[in-house]
Amino acid sequence: MPVAHPISLLVMLLATQAHAAGPPEALKGKSVVVTWTETRQQRYVDQPHFYSVNGSVSLSVYVSAAGRAFSRRTMSTRSGTGTIEQAPGESGGAYPTRTALFGGQTMTLIGETKGGAYRTLIEFDASFASCSARVALAFQSGKTSISLSPITKKYVEMKSVTANGISCSVKTGNVLAGAT
To answer: Are 151 and 53 in contact (CB under 8 A)?
Structure first.
């Protein structure tokens, strides 16, 4: 009998809990924008050595009146800028599929990669007018995280990610308007 990966089990458990809750009414029709800088130890999968990459990331999520969470993640490094957009239930293809989970005053976005998962935890004030966020990349024991770079269109293997300068804001309306 095959054994599920710990990251997959965590995503399934959180998804099961989130389906019962759905987004709070106060968040519908609003956008949440989280920005940060990060330092990654990475390499292209066909290269022998890891190296340090500094970049900036912007994650925007629009929660529609129907309670569907649409997202856009834009990453910029010295190599350029790349964007990944996703509609609810849409596969990320070669990119991590982002799943939005809601519970109380929080929204958690999970993006599973080969060997790991991104997690963005957003906590709201009582009126959902402001927020704070935490960002992390978790790894399966003894593994690295592999995903397709939206900047270079090559597979990148990461062994560490440190996020700094995290800011979070809530805006009325759809900041993704015009997204394709």
So the answer is: no
Contact assessment for residue 68 and residue 99, using Cβ atoms and an 8 Å cutoff: no
d(CA 147, CA 155): 6
pTM (two decimals):
0.83
Query: Could you give the strand order of the β-sheet that contains 69-77, starting from the edge strand earlier in sequence?
Result: 80-86, 69-77, 51-63, 30-44, 155-172, 145-148
pLDDT at 106 over 90: yes
| ∠ CA 124-27-56, rounded to 5° | 60
**What tens digit of pLDDT does each residue of 120-172 get?**
999 999 999 999 999 998 888 888 888 889 999 999 999 999 999 999 999 99
Q: 14 in helix, strand or coil? A: helix
Pair 108, 119: CB distance under 8 Å = yes
Contacts 24+ apart (CB under 8 A), 135-140: 135/34, 135/36, 135/38, 135/57, 135/163, 135/166, 136/161, 136/163, 137/113, 137/161, 138/7, 139/115, 140/5, 140/6, 140/7, 140/115, 140/116
What is the rounded average pLDDT for all residues in the chain? 85
Q: State residue 93's pLDDT score.
A: 67
Q: How many domains does one find in the chain?
A: 1
